[in-house]
Amino acid sequence: MNVNGVSFIDRLLMRRALRHWRGAAERAERWAPGVLRQMRAQARQLQREVDRFLHTADARLAAQEAGAALVPRPDMADWAWRPEVWCTPVRPSGHAAIGSGTAIGRDMKIFHDCGESEIALRQIRNTTADGLAPRALRIDVFRFDGSYLSLVLDLPAADVAGLTPRHILRMDARIAFEKPLDIFARLNIRHGPNTEQIVRELPHGQSDVSVEFDLACARINERRIERAWVDLIFEGPELNQITLHDVTFSRRPRAEL
Predict the structure, then answer these.
(1) Which string of b and e fits 101-135 if b means at least 16 CB within 10 Å?
(2) Best label site of 70, 74, 104, 209, fewest CB within 10 Å?
(3) Number of separate helices (H) and strands (E) present in the chain
(4) How far is CA 168 from the centre of its chain?
(5) Residue among 86, 237, 112 at smallest CA distance from 173
(6) What's the chain's average pLDDT?
(7) What residue spans of the chain are helical by DSSP H?
(8) What is the spatial distance between Cα 249 and Cα 154, in angstroms, rounded to a whole number?
């Protein structure tokens, strides 16, 4: 047995076995009871082995995902977080002609002003083992007749309550695209009746990016902070495929001057 992968012979045998049982399912209505009993016994024996494999495979992959889901914490950071869509499966995992305001998981929504949506979105599995999130988010944009496309990420309420002007909030991301485009990150902090905003442009044409929001630049009343969220804004996304392989947030106290 090839422990590093499935050999060509193994794949061929599995395809033949699949065709055999697909054909058996189609012919079962016509078989005599004696044949059915014999085939049922074989199917149950096969099912036991398949279930045993699935149990082992699911346990190992779950352990791998749990390790990958650990959020990298930069130096001096006292908090780090990865949104749900990059950690666990969401339902539904895909949308075609997605409407504005559609929720993706518990902490993300997509917004646009297209007259006719030609935007498809799907959660996929990250296939590389280099410390990335277990999941990724892929956006396919075809014809785009709107003026904006954005993903809105709600920061956890329990952690938002601890924000102060002495904090620096950081976003790290790994993004792939078919052709370069401008991406902006806008931090929004609602405190009382007011909402403060800080906008940062992501480094152009790079896949691994990070931006920082120094809250000392924002005039916020820390005792009245109610909500905080980040808009990821894509400029001119027409005829592009954008894959967000990972997005994480962290917070650190700013050095005293």
Answers:
(1) ebebbebbbbbbebeebbbbbbbeebeeeeeebbb
(2) 70
(3) 3, 13
(4) 24
(5) 86
(6) 87
(7) 8-27, 33-68, 157-160
(8) 11
